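Issue 218. Parser rejects a valid record. Input:
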Amino acid sequence: MEPTDVIVRPLVTEKGTHLQQTRNAYTFEVNPAATKPQIKSAVEKLYDVRVRDVRTMVRKGKRHRTRTGMTKRPDWKRAVVVLDDNSKIELF
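Output the parser choked on:
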């Protein structure tokens, strides 16, 4: 997989911003088929940083109501990437 296929987008949330400031950890939405080594190498290549740890979780899609009945949003995968102390990503 190419690095741009692994990382879908960075997640900018209140919790993610707190993790950036306190633990030097960044959150990304990633491809559900991506593994931890693939995520690590993709972040290192795209952002030119050194990754110390990768934690992943699969988030279940929420159910919501439509005109024709109940449907479900797709499941997605989130990765929390902890960087080395000397590395930093400027997201904005």
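Fixed in the parser; the record now loads. The chain has a mean pLDDT of 95.
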